[in-house]
Amino acid sequence: MARMKLLMIICDGMADRPSEELEGRTPLDAADTPVMDRLAREGQCGMMNPIGTGIVPGSDTAHLSLLGYDPYRYYCGRGTLEAAGLGIDMEKGDVAFRCNFATSDKDLRVLDRRAGRISGGTVELAKALDGRMIEDVRVIFKEAVEHRSVMVLKGTGLSSEVSETDPHKEGEIVWTAKALKPEAEKTARILNEFTRMSFDILDKHPVNLDRKEKGLLPGNIILSRGPGDVPDIPSFSVKHGMEAGAIVGITLVKGLCRILGMEVIEVDGATGGADTNLAGKMDAAINALIEKDFVLLHIKGTDVFGHDGDVAGKKEYIQKVDASLGPLVEKLGDDVLLALTADHSTPTSVKDHASDTVPLLVHGRGMRFDNVQKFSETEAAGGMLGTINGQELMPLMKGLAGWVDKFGA
Questions:
Q1: Which CB contacts under 8 angstroms, 24+ apart, belong to 269-277?
Q2: Do residues 95 and 153 make contact, with C-beta atoms less than 8 angstroms apart?
Q3: In which region does residue 309 sit, left (phi positive, over 0), alpha (psi from -120 to 50) or beta (all else)?
Q4: Fewer Cβ in 10 A, N or C end of the chain?
Q5: How far is 318 from 327, CA to CA, in rounded Å?
Q6: What fold is seen in the domain 5-75+232-400?
Q7: CA distance 39 to 380
Q8: How far is the C-alpha of 100 from the C-alpha of 115, rounded, in Å?
Q9: pLDDT for the residue 409
Q10: 311-332 and 301-308 are packed helices; what angle lies between their axes, rounded to 10 degrees?
């Protein structure tokens, strides 16, 4: 059998729970999704625990699992992934942190963890911190989207085994970083010095002085969390024997894909939000499959509506995704095996990730098909795939697409 190429489409947080607003249906079940339903009818469906039964997945750990890696072995911390996503080069011994521009008073009491969701001026604020030296450690600091930013510490004797400084709620004093292991004492000391220094520098920065004059919250302190270091992890091509590309808007998943050696394909208007350029991402996937053996296509908007608790918005966005899939599916032909799923459930009733299973469909040439008529959480549960774990998805796809040799004589 001739090998098929592989396309994995992840609708971030798409899975949900029944909603009274939708008369006991989920947004996916209530949505009008003719393309997904056709793929379900012509393919195989089932349910999936992205990591394992009862585990609430993060998007980072879930994507590791779906790409065939054991997250308990290879997860390197969100800071490292965010740094890679922003194109910051890390070496062995470096430690990365995921950070927020936040607002605090002179006593370092947090007034707003996101500085009023600051956006403008963060480039200038980041430059004021970037390149600073604390003892023999150099600080690399870069802004991301809105209040988000990334810091990498470069120096000797550093360790990621430190606690964070972000108290995760307003009204609390910024936490003091503590060493979780003896070898992290220096890192904790450096991190605490940086936190205090960030306030001293940013509180009087012209950007923040201007914000205060306008009645806006200043981004006058940095909160740090998610420490990580450089992982020892095999590349996607080594692990799976495939050349891979990724079409993704959010920094976190971009970083993971870069760490795995996948080519991150940039798309104009791919924002990582609900306003992303869906048509452009679909076109990019079609073009990438000309040269690549495997393409990951990540869509974030479904998760955004889940976190916002917006039932109607999530349903409508799923319908928008379905409409954008139409031209993609028509152009794929018979030479691509397509898998469509979610990296986790983000129920609108919870407004956060949950441990629920997520629906999965696999569609390709010459496959058996089951009796599932609509792609939804309830119907997919009756499909022939049963319930699998996330790390089984890549072997499943490779087996169906002809990438696996016979085991035995």
A1: 272/145, 272/248, 272/300, 273/249, 273/300, 273/301, 273/304, 274/300, 274/301, 274/304, 274/305, 274/313, 274/317, 275/301, 276/249, 276/300, 276/301
A2: yes
A3: left
A4: C
A5: 16
A6: Alkaline Phosphatase, subunit A (3.40.720)
A7: 12
A8: 8
A9: 85
A10: 170
Residue 192 CA from chain centroid, whole number: 28
Q: Are 399 and 52 in contact (CB under 8 A)?
A: no
At 20-66, the pLDDT tens digits run: 999 999 999 999 999 999 999 999 999 999 999 999 999 999 999 99
**Domains in the chain: boundaries:** 5-75+232-400, 81-228
**Span 222-238, pLDDT tens digits:** 999 999 998 899 999 99
Structure-block tokens of residue 171? 């009204």
Residue 342: phi and psi, rounded to 5, are -125, 155
Please name the helix (run of DSSP H) or strand (run of DSSP E) that holds residue 129, with its range, or none.
helix 122-129
* Paired tokens of 341: 């799923």
**Helix or strand run (H / E) with residue 99:** strand 95-104
Sort strands 387-389 and 358-363 into parallel, antiparallel or unpaired. Answer: unpaired
Q: DSSP letters along 293-349, please?
A: SEEEEEE-HHHHHHHHT-HHHHHHHHHHHHHHHHHHHHHHTTSEEEEEE-SSB--TT
